[in-house]
Automatic annotation (TrEMBL):
<dbReference type="InterPro" id="IPR036597">
    <property type="entry name" value="Fido-like_dom_sf"/>
</dbReference>
<dbReference type="InterPro" id="IPR003812">
    <property type="entry name" value="Fido"/>
</dbReference>
<protein>
    <submittedName>
        <fullName>Oxidoreductase</fullName>
    </submittedName>
</protein>
<feature type="domain" description="Fido">
    <location>
        <begin position="120"/>
        <end position="263"/>
    </location>
</feature>
<feature type="region of interest" description="Disordered">
    <location>
        <begin position="1"/>
        <end position="23"/>
    </location>
</feature>
Length: 287
């Protein structure tokens, strides 16, 4: 499960350069991945086919953003009730409040960065960290340097050194810029998993990783209105399952990587189900 130990294979984005083919597309052939991709597509289609989406999609998008931010913050230790998030106006208090504020800011910012992502993913990641860590003066908006500590207590994986982190982050960026035929779910899962494994910033890596996953899902055209918040699903599946699936990704084995992609697929499906329920509530006049 270590990202640096000899027993663990490196995750897929660090194994193959773009010139050697399309390693992300190759992941689509792993056992169970095609089924996950198809399941996600059907779940997303159900939301977009709902009659409420034709008339009130902006409301669904806004509600999905709020619920997605709540879910992402929960995985970073701020597990608040949705109504508490809705009620609050000040997120400058204790650590949980600041985490929730960072998640809300990232959700709002992600939609502004879609056009930049495919040309300069590293610039987008730096911007996401700057937005998330607005209350911190040091180490903001840039990848960590050798010897700098990382404040990410809920991710217990061994931390790659700065040189390995920079190399793999550049490799991931090259894959994104090169494009390819990989399904959106596969690309989103790899981006998410690599950022959690690398923890390239001094803080807020989990929040940034989940925001980047959202950017891929929306920017790919799979969820163009951002109404299927994977963060909701990740939170519903629970932190233990999240970290177990991440261990599989970091192991670099085909089974582990496929299990992580499937986990991300279930999360998107649950996010789609959440927004379908919102549509149903709006249709009944209950929300």
């Amino acid at each position: 499960m270590s990202t640096t130990g000899a027993a663990a294979d490196p995750p897929p984005s660090s194994r193959t350069s773009p010139s050697e083919g399309d390693p992300l597309a190759a992941l689509g052939a792993l056992p169970g991945v095609a089924e996950s991709v198809e399941s996600v597509r059907k779940a997303v289609d159900r939301v977009y086919g709902h009659r409420i989406m034709r008339r009130r999609s902006n409301e669904i998008t806004s509600e999905a953003a709020l619920r997605g931010a709540r879910g992402s913050a929960a995985l970073s230790g701020a597990d608040w009730a949705l109504e508490e998030v809705r009620r609050r106006t000040d997120f400058s208090g204790d650590g949980e409040a600041r985490t929730m504020g960072a998640a809300l800011r990232l959700t709002a910012e992600a939609g502004q960065l879609l056009s930049v992502w495919r040309q300069s993913p590293l610039r987008v990641l730096a911007r996401l960290h700057l937005v998330a860590a607005a209350d911190k003066a040091d180490h903001v908006g840039r990848p960590r340097r050798e010897g700098e500590p990382v404040d990410e207590p809920l991710i217990g994986l061994p931390l790659p050194d700065a040189a390995e982190m920079h190399g793999r982050l550049e490799g991931l960026a090259e894959l994104i810029i090169a494009g390819g035929s990989a399904p959106a779910l596969v690309t989103a899962a790899v981006v998410h998993g690599e950022l959690l494994a690398l923890r390239p910033f001094a803080s807020h890596n989990g929040l940034v990783a989940r925001a980047a996953e959202r950017i891929v899902l929306v920017g790919s055209g799979l969820d163009p209105k951002s109404v299927c918040p994977a963060e909701v699903g990740h939170a519903e599946l629970g932190r233990e399952a999240y970290l177990t699936a991440l261990d599989g990704y970091v192991s670099g084995t085909p089974e582990g990587v496929a299990a992580w992609i499937a986990h991300c697929g279930r999360a998107v499906g649950l996010g789609a189900r959440e927004s379908t329920a919102v549509c149903e509530a709006l249709q009944r006049g209950a929300a």
